[in-house]
Amino acid sequence: MYKFLVKYRLHILFTILCFYCIVLVVLSSLPQSTGIKSNGVDKYYHLGAYAFLSFIVFFTLTFQARISLFKRYSASFTLLLTTIFGMLNELYQLFIPSRSFNKLDLLANILGSLLMVIVIKFSLIIIRLVKV
Fold this sequence. Notes:
Blueprint: H1 2-7, H2 9-29, H3 42-63, H4 68-72, H5 74-92, H6 103-131
């Protein structure tokens, strides 16, 4: 099982990434009344959702071997891709009845992505230091 996971890790991560993006778009398509009330708590959900998205994007970019630029600058491309996805997702909500573009949601999306990239980068630095 371990060999299978190592061999197909990029395929597995990409599948999870696609599925998770679909889930985020579907959740963004729900009418506001069936969603989470916007009393500020939903910003934590945005933060967590985009932190998890950044985690998946970062390791998908890191494990791929076709485009060395993505692998070398995986943190920067993770922030870029998740920010673009967050902006498009918020703009998409303009076309959904009872939904609207929310700048604070976009800020929470970007902040969640940024925090996860920082956590991953510091974790990788600590792992390298411990190995030495």
